[in-house]
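Re: the request from the purification team.
They wanted to know what the chain is likely to look like in 3D before they choose a buffer screen. I agreed to run a prediction and write the result into the notebook, where they can find it.
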Amino acid sequence: MGGEMRIFDYIGLIIIANFALYLKTLKFKFVSDDFSVFHNPPVFKNAWHKRWLQFTGACKLKGTTYSFVWHKGKLILGITKTEEFEHLLALLIHAAICVLIYTGLGANQVSFVAALLYSVNPVNNQGTIWPGCRGYALPILSFLIAIQVPLLSPLFLYFGTWYTIGFHGLPLALIGSPWWYLLIPALICLLIHRRKFTKAIKYKSNTESFTVDKTYNFKKVIIFIKTYGFYLTLCLIPFRITFYHNFLQSMAGSQRKKWESIWDKFFWIGVFGIIGTLAFAYFQWGLLAWAILAFFLTVAPFCNVIRANQEIAERFVAFPNVFLMFALAQVITPYPAIVTAFIAFYATRTFYTINMYKDEYWITEIAVCEDPHAWWAWHCRAMKRWDTQSYKEALILWVMAKLLSPNEFKVLMNIATCLRLLKNNEEADQYLKLAEENIVPGQEKEALDFIAQHRRGKLPILL
């Protein structure tokens, strides 16, 4: 009985930590991709199907809904707004993930520390707190349930691998794990979902990749190592938490030569990290080696060898970070002062940076504060000023983006449009010429069409 109570005590502490830190998110609004799902819900068959789509993140119900809310010190059944319900659901899923990290990875002191580290690590916020990234949280939940309830594992592996991140993440995480036998049903699930996965990657590659992204040479190895080094550092020491990272921006465009160089600290961190992972796994195989290897294997698909999305995004490491936090916990648990330092550091960073999800205004404002060298953050900030018809302010912000990255086609086009609108035609022509000289290879057809529209007076603004 005492052991059971102790387990429930730990679970209670994990839940309290999550709610204490993230309860304020219930008052946050939708941001970014939330809106496209909210305004364009899929067709549903009945009320149960609608709720299922909402749970999976494919649908956001408009208006109000019934859910449990905290009112005057009591938990009651009340009416909540759509945003509140979605954030509450995201919080409950995150709390469940953290509890399952504790119960699934040993139900001991080490797994408790791992659960707390994962609970408060700000790198996870995009993947497990933001409603728009439910598809990154649910595969984690599926994996953790599958390893704890073997009889139900085929069902949860099927559900988890339905998502793109889970398609490759779940099987790779099982390699060398204590649950290696689940690889068989996991691989069967891959065969079932392979057509859907291939179609999704092909669509993303055709719409978001450039010519350089589809060219494979030794420089892709440099990019792979560098990306891995960046993610490894960011997860352990979340020095920069933002929606728009400067690191590897314009990797296939105007800053290609910069990012293909080996003279970068993250390249060498990646080199030592990969060599250390493989050497440790060979000479000291155990739970620690598996956790480090699982982080490497599950983050590898997002290391820009095959790029079908933005170069860097924190949601890509929400799943791999489970294993890195478990590895970190195994190392630091014997030292309470170090554990306290890590948790305090992570929680402090989270408490501040989570405010970027308040609404559309703060998502760009905090992005600029966290990474002032990210030209894309300044570009998105300018777009919001443009939408409010603050054209002069938008022009200033696009000029800031140009100072950071002088040869961005979109920025140059938008500056030309602003100048044209402000009747500065001579300078607008100069920027239009600059834009034409900096078309990204592989995007010539679309770019020339935008330039032609501009010259006809339609003045397109490019996001």
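For the purification team: The first strand starts at residue 64 and ends at 71.
Please add any questions underneath this entry.
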